[in-house]
C-alpha cells in the first residue's frame, strides 16, 4: 500500500501557473481524476498534494482548491503541502491564516529555480523559524550546488521537520554522482531531515533511462537516511516525462527488491502517516 507524498494537480482554468509556458509537455491540465484512476489500480491508499508554484496571488486559492478536492466523498487526498514566500514581510499573517486549515500539513518554497541567495536572506530565515512548534513541515527542493545552503537552514532550525524532495535533485543525465553523493551523506546526518524517493526519473535522459540509471541515486539516498527516515512520492505528472505513473511505481518496487516487508512498508507509506498524522484524517 502506497501513500503518495508528492502529487501535483494542475488546473489552468482555475489557477495561474506562469512557469508552465516554458514547460513543454507539462503545459496542460493534469487533473485529480486522471491521477486517481491510475493510482487506485496501483494500490495507493492516500495522497498528499504538493504545491505547483502557482502565481503568488493564487497561493491561497490553490490551497482552497485542493482542500475542496480532499473534501469530496472517497477522495484519496488527505493532506496538502502549501506554497509560501518566507522572503515576504506578510508571511507571519499568512502562516496564522494557514494554521486554521487542518488539511495543510506543511509548506514548500521552490528553491531550485530561484537565486541561491534567497534562502540566506535574514527575513527568509526569520520567517522560516516561525514554523517551529506548529507541527508543519518544510519541503526542500534544492540543487546539489544549493545543498550547503540547505544544511545551513536545517542547522538554524533544529525544531523544524524538513523533507528533502527528489533525492536532492541529482543531475543524473550528466552522471554528476560524486559531489551529489557527498553532500547527501552530510545532509542525512541531520536528524530533523527526511529523504523523499521521488522525481529522479525526470533528471535522466528521459527517453533512454533504465533501472540501472537511477539505482545508484536511489540506493545512496536510502542508505544515507535509512528506512525510518524515507518517504515516497510520485511527482505526478512530472514523472510522465519519463514514462507513466505505473512505470515509476514499477521501478520503485524493483529498486526495493530484497528489502524487508517492514522496511518497504515504512518507505512506501508508514513513515508518511506517522510524520503528518495522516491516520487522523482518513
Q: Which oligomerization state do the chains in this entry correspond to?
A: single chain
Question: What are the low-pLDDT stretches, counting only 5+ consecutive residues below 50?
Answer: none
CATH architectural group: Alpha-Beta Barrel
Q: How many distinct beta strands?
A: 8
Gap from first CA to last CA: 15 Å
CATH class: Alpha Beta
Please summarize the sheet with the most strands: 8 strands, parallel
Outline the fold blueprint.
Blueprint: E1 2-7, H1 32-39, E2 44-50, H2 59-70, E3 77-83, H3 91-98, E4 104-108, H4 122-128, E5 137-140, H5 147-156, E6 162-164, H6 177-188, E7 193-197, H7 211-225, E8 230-232, H8 245-255, H9 261-276
Parallel strand pairs: 1-2, 2-3, 3-4, 4-5, 5-6, 6-7, 7-8
